[in-house]
Write a structure and sequence with these properties.
Layout lengths: L12 H39 L1 H13 L5 H4 L3 H10 L1 H24 L9 H11 L1 H4 L6 E3 L2 H10 L1 H9 L6 H10 L3 E3 H19 L4 H27 L3 H23 E2 L4 E2 L1 H9 L6 H12 L16 H9 L5 H18 L2 H5 L10 H7 L1 H17 L3 E2 L4 E2 L5 H5 L12 H12 L1
Antiparallel strand pairs: 1-2, 3-4, 5-6
Helix pairs in contact: 1-19, 1-20, 2-15, 4-17, 5-15, 6-13, 8-12, 10-12, 11-12, 12-13, 13-14, 14-15, 16-17
């Protein structure tokens, strides 16, 4: 295939023209086919990129923060699946979790303004709240704070469920919730009294929410919501009265205190470890996390196996590594030792920064070659090449009056070469062949 059939001298121009048209059509057709294939590959890549957009965004945030993710979770494929399978998926995820725990602790400490080199403790969180609370104490001197429709509406909503219960089942209502909502239904508050009320509501609310008594648990939920309503009211009052410095300090203090409670809820005080999965649950339930705490929660929610709550140290060589070495013992001592060390090395490799930045990141480029050939210039080039080769097929060589032969290759595949031309009889072909032999 690929050598052009000779054309006798004097062959009609029409024959060569037809051959050129046929070659051009072949080039156009193949270019169109390549374009369709490239389009299918590109569409598949585009669909995958859209489907994985949220995962890929969080994976990028995770790597920027210093987390490592097993590559089968960020770029699933044959190579990553095979390598991670050899390394041991369970052991790889556990090793990643151990490395990531240090990152989680560092991010949480940074967000709170604590020393990342020191473990987080409940005492440290309490001290942060005490310091931030000074901004609340400064509000005690601003005088009366009028309530507004927004505040009164929130307080009314807090008591609705309890009122429905009392209407249908008199005597079963939560007396604590009734008293609280009634005491807050005022036209104004003294700022100093409001600050003390906040301290009481926060402390009692947090204590009641962990109670086993359903009535106390319900009261605790209402108390913390009431505290937030008072804080929102004070925030609006400072904004409306132009007290910008007090407002800024108050808002910063609110955020800092809220962050300490979020971390404390996820903290293992015995180890100083912050549970990323617990922060992820808070975010899912609508907790307005921000900064590094939000990063921890997002990564923990997207890749829970890579941020497991590991409660014990993980050995460098797992029992499965020993099992694999034992199976290789029959082959030889050297093979056994190599197997024992190969799996831990594989785990270290796929969790390394170079691997994470390379094969650990999924790409959606499609086929560069197909995209080039299917582009408008590429298709025109294919069509032109087929046309030129087709029209020149069998053209006599003026130096020796012998026919030239087109080479096989790509142009032949494009349809430029044909085994026979219209109007060329068997006798003419035989005569041309004899001339070529001389």
């Amino acid at each position: 295939m690929g050598a052009a059939a000779p054309t006798a001298a004097g062959e009609s121009v029409a024959g060569n023209t037809i051959a050129g048209v046929a070659g051009g059509a072949a080039g156009f057709g193949i270019g169109k086919g390549i374009g369709a294939l490239a389009g299918a590959v590109t569409n598949k890549a585009t669909t995958a990129a859209t489907t994985n957009a949220a995962r890929d965004t969080i994976a990028g945030v995770a790597k920027d923060a210093g987390y490592v993710i097993p590559p089968s979770q960020t770029n699933p494929g044959f190579i990553n699946g095979a390598l991670e399978g050899f390394a041991g998926k369970l052991s790889t995820a556990q090793k990643a979790s151990v490395k990531n725990q240090a990152v989680t602790n560092r991010l949480a400490a940074q967000e709170l303004g604590l020393n990342p080199a020191q473990p987080i403790t409940k005492d440290a969180l309490t001290q942060l709240r005490t310091t931030a609370g000074q901004a609340y104490d400064n509000l005690g001197n601003i005088g009366a704070i009028p309530t507004d429709s927004t505040f009164l509406s929130k307080i009314a909503d807090l008591g609705k469920s309890n009122q429905l219960l009392a209407k249908s089942f008199p005597g079963m209502e939560n007396i604590g919730i009734d008293k609280l909502t009634q005491s807050l239904n005022q036209s104004s508050f003294d700022s100093a009294a409001a600050v003390e009320a906040l301290k009481h509501l926060r402390f009692s609310g947090n204590a009641n929410k962990i109670s086993l008594d359903p009535a106390n648990k319900a009261l605790g939920a209402v108390q913390t919501k009431a505290a937030s309503a008072i804080e929102d009211l004070m925030d609006r009052h400072l904004s409306n009265t132009g007290q910008t410095d007090l407002l800024s300090n108050f808002q910063n203090a609110r955020q800092k205190i809220a962050k300490t409670y979020s971390v404390e809820k996820a903290l293992n005080d015995a180890t100083g470890n912050v549970n990323a999965g617990q922060l992820a649950q808070q975010l899912t339930k609508g907790k307005p996390l921000s900064g590094d705490l939000k990063t921890i929660a997002q990564v923990g929610g997207a890749f829970p196996k890579a941020l497991q709550n590991v409660t014990s140290s993980i050995p460098g060589v797992s029992p499965l590594d020993y099992l694999g070495a034992g199976l290789m013992h029959g082959i030889g001592g050297v093979a056994s030792l190599l197997t024992l060390g190969a799996r831990p090395l594989a785990r270290a490799a796929i969790l390394s920064k170079p691997y994470q930045a390379g094969l650990g990141t999924q790409g959606y480029a499609g086929s560069t070659i197909l995209n080039t050939l299917s582009s408008q210039p590429g298709r025109i080039a294919l069509q032109a090449a087929g046309a030129v080769k087709g029209s020149q097929q069998g053209k006599p060589d003026p130096s020796n009056n012998k026919p030239s032969f087109a080479d096989g290759g790509l142009i032949g595949a494009l349809g430029a070469n044909t085994s026979a031309k219209p109007g060329l009889t068997k006798m003419q072909k035989a005569k041309a062949a004899r001339k070529g032999a001389r």
